[in-house]
Amino acid sequence: MTIKKFPSYKGVELITFGTHDNTERGETSKQGETEQQNWTQPIFVFLIKFKHEFSRTAREEVTEIFNTYSENRKILLEKNLVQFLTQEQYSVEMTKTIASEIIEKYEPIEEVKQAHQMSLEGFTRYMDSSECLLFDNKCERTYQNMNHPLNDYFISSSHNTYLISDQLVGPSDIWGYVSALVKGCRCLEIDCWDGSQNEPVVYHGYTLTSKLLFKTVIQAIRKYAFITSDYPVVLSLENHCSPSQQEVIAHNLQSILGETLLSDVLDEFLDKLPSPEALKFKILVRNKKIGTLKETRERKGTDKHGQIEEYEEVEETDQEDEDDDEVKESETEDILKDNQEKEMESKRVAGLPLFKKKRVKVAVALSDLVIYTKAEKFRSFQHSRLHQQFNESNSIGESKARKLSKLQAQEFILHTRKFITRIYPKATRTDSSNFNPQEFWNIGCQMVALNFQTPGLPMDLQTGKFLDNGGSGYVLKPDFLRDNKSKFNPNKAPIDSNPITLTIRLISGIQLPPSHHSSSNKADVIVIIELFGVPNDQAKHQTRVIKKNAFSPRWNETFTFIIQVPELALIRFVVENQSLIAGNEFLGQYTLPVLCMNKGYRRVPLFSKMGESLEPASLFLYVWYVR
């Protein structure tokens, strides 16, 4: 087959594919025909593109790549495509069969497709497709080993899930649970309080937040629990109910959730935590518990109505750490006796931790629904090492957790290797703001609970982190956070790390979002590339400003990162409109784990502050890294 280009006509470029009638190019035939007339057996004539349309869709940077591998700058042969995919896209298992499938899928011109070739239009379609996204499609499926115990995973977790605004006067809404579950959240928080007509309610106690019926919350959870992920959901109950309404809670959990509720120990996991795989399609209750799992099993099938147990709960009241636990108004009702106050005062003078004790009543019916996720008050790493059971988990406020992570990082990691640890926002975050979750993932905390309703950097990191492993809500922790022999400390330079050198050439932007601060909607765009991980890996680079062009800005700037602990690293691309007066305007972002990045020429999709896709807005870049 031969390709013949004719002069353009009225802005239309014509190319004819045909067979030659054995006359040499430039010779006339016996009938005196010209070279152009020698194309006596045309197969087809087709319209490439109107030139103005062509220049709009075929971006200059993509055309340059195409021309590099095309032998005639018009058509990409199958062997040329294989060469491009191997050399530039690092497709190590590339074969002609795969190249042929790409041509079949993206080449719009039937005759070119049949010739096993690719036009610039087809190549552009391929480069703009999901196959050329920065996110590695391997990470889009659940590829990690899901048979480790629960404490070996980072678990997507939400704080005060029922709230969709602030913590004091905002509404409580079922949408809080639905949206969190759709986003892959696997640990939901439910604050339970006595309601009228013996119906427990969910709300932020002693505030003006509105109330939801507990049973309505559970009905919504039952409906949406496994929409996004098959793996277990943990319901973290903050229980302020009387024993009688605790029994109602237990009844609602059993009657609404049915077989999905885990209400008994699994035979294979009598003395160890089960795996996410073993708990597929199960919902677990996290709450206070009376007695042992053995005693729970012995009571199975008996009538527990009216059975109430009491236990003494010890609470630290060290005033120097105001965020040791969330400020719960119920605690303020506890009045210490004179002798307790004197004892505490003497300890305060001596500089010892201060504790107070209170009696807590628990309905046995609810207690027995707590199996592998018993909530246990954290006292110290030493106390946990000596006394904590395998099925007991701790909740620690962000301020105390931050202090411990700086002063006792290795002990903290030893703790999270054995026990599920939940970190939650401090009580002063009444506006539902969030802390940076990265610092607590660095020490292996499994449940780093955030206010899902509040957009911003912390939730971008949360979303990016849990893109991995198929969005299942469970990400296997790195070996050094699971291995008891590891001496890993995120605050120190790793001794035996295997760092990577990451190079990113930011080439261009594609239809970036317009500025809302400009009357012309034309943005002065910059791109910020941020790296999050252990402290030594934190880094940030910024491009130059491209003035008044958000539609097709070109940068061609290269940035390099040395990443010591890539297993914990996240990379975030932020597009902003530069404003010297009001501060930069956020236009879009994308965050993902470093080890989920594809190499080669890649497209970075952008998302709004609220996490909505801004397609076709994206960045075009070249990625290369070596370890």
Summarize this structure briefly.
By secondary structure, the protein is α+β, with helices and mostly antiparallel strands.
Shape estimate: elongated
Unreliable stretches (pLDDT < 50, length at least 5) are: 1-56, 318-351
Strand order of the largest sheet: 14-15-16-17-6-18
Number of helices: 18
Largest sheet: 6 strands, mixed
Radius of gyration computed on alpha carbons: 31 Å
Query: N-to-C terminal Cα separation, in Å?
Result: 45 Å
Query: Care to count the β-strands?
Result: 26
Helical fraction equals 10-25%
Give the overall average pLDDT: 87
Question: Can you put this structure into words, describing what you see?
Answer:
This protein is an alpha+beta fold and 627 residues long. The protein has 18 helices and 26 strands. The strands form 7 sheets. It has a 6-stranded mixed beta sheet with strand order 14-15-16-17-6-18. Strands 9-8-7-10-11 form a 5-stranded mixed beta sheet. Strands 22-19-26-25 form a 4-stranded antiparallel beta sheet, with no helix packed on it. Strand 23 and strand 24 form a beta hairpin. Helix 3 (78-87) packs across helix 4 and helix 7 runs parallel beside helix 8. The longest helix has 15 residues, at 243-257. It is elongated, with a radius of gyration of 31 Å. The two termini are 45 Å apart. Mean pLDDT is 87; it is low at 1-56 and 318-351.
